[in-house]
Design the sequence.
């Protein structure tokens, strides 16, 4: 096949190196990121499922319909029912209002239960992970129930009408969550014991859950079932996804994944630019060949066919190599981040491979084909007359095709409009500014260059004389620099944010439900160990009875938990850290609503769910007393911070007279962990929420993800350098020719290299300056819309851009044109 | 073989219309050799381009084997060239990425000829470069490069060969050797040869000469019509 033969000869003649490596890089970047993203995503779903003990949960205020279970059995979907409720427990004369959860034998569907036969066990050796809960007739209980009821393992306690044996200490349920609603000691019982205990009566306040999970390899059945199930839900029911179950980890991973996508997208755009530049260069080298072909009587159509065949062959070969390289790189990335993936990564499907391959073909169609498009129209007369040149495709058309390809690739690849737009606009601004400002700068350089030495004069007038390739190079340089800047800035701010969030002394324990009379005791226990709390918050337990002076309808009550259960109300004069006012105003000193009611600030989403807006009134019932409050502001909360968050906040002076409890968060280092036991033995009603394990886990994840990001950054930097190479090589033969002639005329090595250095450094500095502009814009967009990071001005970009750009491009240029002074001029001319 | 009647070529420049060729009439029979001579800028190369169907006259007709190529579109003219025409250029126009053998074989391969490489090798041996087949143009001297170009031109067995200053880039000694080779091959292959030159000695080796001055032919082509 002639096309193949021609392609191989071009390869041998080193004309294809840059096109091929750009193509391989584009495909490799996309494939590695797509493979990694898909596999991590699959693993993450599994991982987060363990926080939910299922793949998906339906939470309901009424009993789960038996029809749902039957349908699940038909579809081959696994299920487990749980029911959570409060009930009085008795042993001898002691009693305690405990938080019970009855679970079916199949519970948990994901993750594991942790139990121990040692009360207050901390040592891992004492803790056992198991795949199912208590047998009928048995109870697993919180350590603190033992001192509360004065029981020991093996004793039988009364729950409702039944008597059950306490067989194990319950250390951890996968789906325990971090809600403060469970105030009683937790008890796990078997679902089959529910009827015998008779604790659930009509009208009992019970939270039912249906846990569902896919069987191995039956994801389709699972999806079908979930779709069906969603149509069955009514106001009593709510779906909980794994992401909601573990917001901190999900958010870290999500940002990591988005960065991966960003880096991948930037890689594709960079490789695209390199491909476009390399193709432009390649096309110029083909002009004589095509003129000869035409002279020999080969028709334009035959020439076009020949080149299209070559592009297809190149696309297949480049994509195949790119897929291999991409696979290798993704393996390398996985090795780096393996530790934070406690479970084996599931194999990826076909999609990443298809994505990678299609990227290669699309890149060639968008970047290489337009550059070669004019070749068949090359006049055969060019063999006789050098001044005859076929008109290449209008640069506007070519530019638009390139931009369109980039847009399609970006969107198809990231499925994220903001990301695509930010990169596209950032790049477009850089390119447009490069052309407009670049022309002015070049002109200025030429005009004022004569005031400087001969090197400067010659270099600046050269740049002006070659303004078209100079501008193309500038677009390439500035685009590459801008994209690299975007990536580095986002990466830095992400990592900084994570580090800040997870400072070494970030609170890792919550102490909740500390009664007023226990407060001093608990405080002194904490102080004895010289531990610092994040401040004590007072809480009052209250219920919502009326919204805007109306009783909530039964439908509304069924639809929202906040209308059914007791809520934590707190007060503070200062807006807590991490809270942001969404609507209304935070209270100023001594200001109250005109209505004379107590002002209240609501969490914004909750306000929306309850249909409350500014000026609406809410009646609370606290310990049998009622009062009205007016909504004066709504707030967003930072759930990723490990500090107490409240849905309802009041100013000081309204709740102090109601019976209250206290809470705080604090950092307890590993060696002080026994404090928890002392605390619980002495104050059994205090609830300790231990987040240290989860925080350690997040910390490991963050550090591993950071390492992954660093590697990705390096790979993208590689893409950037490739673009620079492509851009530098663009005008190289003309430069070498001129340098050889200058050399023949006796110019010194210093003058020739000096001219090249000044030309490229000037180009690089201008490009760096323009890149800072585009990068600042794109980063602002990305931070605002994609990473939810605050906007910040990056003054270092404006310094590092021109300096780094000038240095890098200048060096590349000099290295490339060294040949002009190290080889005899005739040899240089002959090799061109 | 070639029938040229009343061919003129004008180009529009910023200073008005410029006559490059004016009323050229010419007839070349198969197997003839014709030299087009004249000083620089006299229109020699333009005429060669028009005769070869690479360019179009502003007026007049050019017929090759009875077909009016000036009435054809580019694809039609390409079709005529494909069957008949070979070229030798002043600056050789060898493709730098291909070896001598591949350069010679390329037009044959484009025509879909199966034993392109064997044929190419045969012609390279014929021009005395049998030992240099795998050398790249940059590894060959100017004279050797032009010999490769001759091999490439004749390997296609053209009936009509156009040569544009074939020795213009070579020294006298080398140029003479190339000319000898050109005429030898031409004789062997029975090709019609039309060459452009400003060298009187080279022109003298052709059977006929057409002299141009400022785009006009000085007289009817001199020499013997076959």
Sequence:
């Amino acid at each position: 096949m002639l096309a193949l033969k021609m392609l191989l000869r071009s390869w041998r003649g080193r004309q294809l190196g840059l096109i091929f490596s750009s193509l391989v890089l584009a495909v490799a970047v996309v494939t590695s990121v797509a493979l990694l993203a898909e596999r991590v995503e699959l693993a993450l779903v599994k991982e987060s499922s363990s926080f939910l003990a299922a793949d998906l949960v339906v939470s309901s205020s009424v009993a789960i319909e038996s029809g749902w279970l039957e349908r699940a059995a038909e579809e081959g979907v696994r299920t487990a029912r749980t029911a959570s409720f409060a009930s009085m427990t008795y042993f001898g004369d002691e009693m305690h209002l405990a938080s019970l959860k009855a679970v079916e034998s199949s519970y948990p569907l994901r993750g594991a239960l942790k139990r121990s036969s040692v009360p207050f066990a901390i040592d891992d050796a004492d803790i056992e992970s198991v795949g199912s809960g208590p047998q009928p007739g048995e109870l697993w209980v919180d350590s603190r129930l033992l001192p509360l009821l004065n029981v020991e393992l093996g004793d039988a306690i009364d729950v409702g009408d039944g008597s059950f044996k306490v067989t194990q200490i319950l250390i951890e349920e996968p789906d325990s969550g971090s809600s403060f609603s469970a105030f009683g000691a937790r008890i796990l019982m078997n679902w089959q014991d529910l009827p015998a205990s008779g604790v659930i009566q009509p009208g009992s306040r019970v939270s039912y859950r249906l846990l569902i999970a896919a069987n191995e390899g039956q994801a389709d059945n699972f999806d079908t079932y979930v779709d069906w199930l969603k149509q069955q839900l009514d106001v009593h029911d709510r779906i909980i996804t794994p992401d909601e179950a573990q917001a901190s980890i999900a958010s870290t991973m999500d940002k990591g994944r988005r960065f991966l996508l960003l880096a991948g997208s930037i890689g594709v755009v960079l490789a695209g630019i390199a491909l476009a530049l390399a193709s432009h260069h390649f096309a110029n080298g083909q002009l004589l060949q095509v003129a000869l072909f035409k002279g020999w009587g080969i028709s334009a159509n035959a020439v076009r066919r020949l080149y299209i065949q070559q592009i297809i062959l190149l696309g297949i070969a480049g994509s195949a190599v790119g897929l291999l390289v991409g696979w290798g790189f993704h393996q390398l990335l996985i090795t780096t981040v393996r530790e934070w993936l406690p479970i084996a990564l599931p194999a990826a499907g076909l999609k990443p491979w298809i994505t990678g391959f299609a990227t290669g073909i699309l890149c060639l169609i968008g970047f290489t084909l337009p550059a070669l498009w004019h070749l068949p129209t090359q006049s055969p007369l060019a063999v006789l007359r050098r001044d005859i040149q076929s008109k290449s495709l209008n640069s506007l058309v070519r530019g638009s095709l390139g931009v369109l390809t980039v847009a399609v690739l970006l969107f198809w690849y990231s499925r994220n409009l903001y990301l695509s737009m930010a990169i596209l606009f950032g790049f477009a601004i850089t390119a447009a500014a490069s052309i407009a400002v670049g022309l002015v700068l070049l002109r200025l350089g030429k005009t004022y260059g004569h005031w400087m030495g001969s090197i400067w004069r010659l270099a600046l007038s050269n740049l002006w004389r070659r303004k078209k390739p100079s501008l193309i190079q500038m677009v390439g340089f500035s685009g590459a620099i801008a994209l690299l800047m975007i990536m580095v800035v986002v990466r830095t701010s992400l990592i900084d944010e994570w580090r800040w969030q997870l400072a070494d002394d970030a609170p890792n324990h919550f102490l909740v439900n500390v009664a007023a009379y226990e407060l001093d005791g608990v405080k002194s226990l904490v102080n004895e160990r010289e531990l610092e709390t994040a401040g004590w918050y007072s809480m009052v337990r209250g219920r919502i009875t009326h919204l805007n002076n109306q009783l909530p309808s039964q439908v509304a009550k069924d639809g929202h938990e906040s209308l059914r259960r007791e809520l934590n109300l707190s007060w503070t004069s200062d807006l807590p850290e991490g809270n942001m006012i969404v609507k209304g105003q935070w209270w100023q000193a001594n200001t109250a609503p005109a209505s004379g009611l107590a002002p209240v600030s609501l969490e914004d989403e909750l306000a929306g769910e309850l249909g409350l807006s500014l000026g609406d009134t809410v009646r609370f019932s606290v310990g049998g007393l009622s009062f009205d409050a007016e909504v004066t502001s709504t707030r967003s909360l930072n759930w990723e911070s490990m500090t107490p968050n409240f849905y309802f906040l009041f100013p000081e002076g309204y709740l102090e007279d109601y019976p209250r409890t206290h809470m705080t968060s604090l950092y307890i280092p590993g060696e002080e962990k026994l404090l928890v036991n002392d605390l619980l033995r002495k104050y059994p009603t205090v609830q300790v929420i231990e987040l240290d394990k989860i925080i350690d886990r997040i910390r490991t994840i963050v550090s591993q993800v950071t390492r992954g990001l660093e590697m990705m950054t390096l790979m993208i930097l590689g893409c950037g350098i490739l673009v620079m190479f492509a851009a530098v090589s663009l005008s190289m033969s003309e430069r070498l020719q001129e340098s050889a002639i200058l050399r023949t005329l006796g110019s010194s090595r210093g003058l020739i290299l000096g001219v090249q250095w000044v030309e490229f450094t000037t180009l690089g500095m201008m490009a760096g300056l323009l890149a800072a502009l585009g990068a600042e814009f794109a980063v602002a967009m990305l931070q605002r819309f994609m990473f939810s990071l605050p906007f910040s001005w990056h003054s270092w970009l404006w310094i590092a851009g021109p300096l780094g750009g000038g240095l890098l491009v200048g060096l590349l240029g000099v290295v490339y044109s060294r040949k002009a002074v190290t080889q005899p001029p005739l040899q240089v001319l002959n090799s061109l | 073989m070639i029938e040229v009647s009343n061919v003129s070529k004008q180009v529009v420049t910023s200073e008005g219309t410029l006559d490059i060729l004016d009323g050229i009439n010419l007839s070349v029979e198969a197997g003839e050799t014709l030299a087009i001579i004249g000083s620089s800028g006299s229109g020699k190369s333009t005429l060669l381009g028009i005769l070869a169907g690479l360019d179009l006259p502003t007026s007049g007709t050019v017929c090759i084997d009875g077909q009016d190529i000036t009435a054809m579109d580019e694809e039609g003219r390409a079709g005529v060239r494909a069957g008949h025409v070979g070229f030798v250029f002043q600056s050789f126009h060898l493709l730098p990425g291909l070896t001598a053998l591949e350069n010679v074989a390329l037009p044959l391969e484009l025509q879909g000829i199966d034993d392109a490489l064997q044929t190419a090798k045969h012609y390279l041996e014929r021009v005395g470069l049998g030992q240099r087949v795998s050398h790249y143009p940059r590894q060959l001297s100017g004279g050797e490069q032009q010999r490769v170009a001759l091999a490439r031109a004749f390997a296609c067995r053209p009936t009509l060969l156009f040569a544009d200053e074939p020795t213009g880039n070579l020294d006298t000694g080398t140029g003479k050797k190339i000319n000898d080779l050109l005429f030898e091959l031409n004789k062997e292959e029975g090709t019609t040869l039309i060459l452009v030159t400003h060298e009187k000695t080279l022109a003298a080796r052709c059977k006929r000469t057409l002299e141009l001055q400022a785009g006009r032919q000085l007289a009817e082509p001199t020499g013997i019509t076959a």
Notes: Chain A has four domains: 1-53+249-415, 54-248, 417-502+696-832, 533-666. The longest strand of chain A covers residues 78-91.
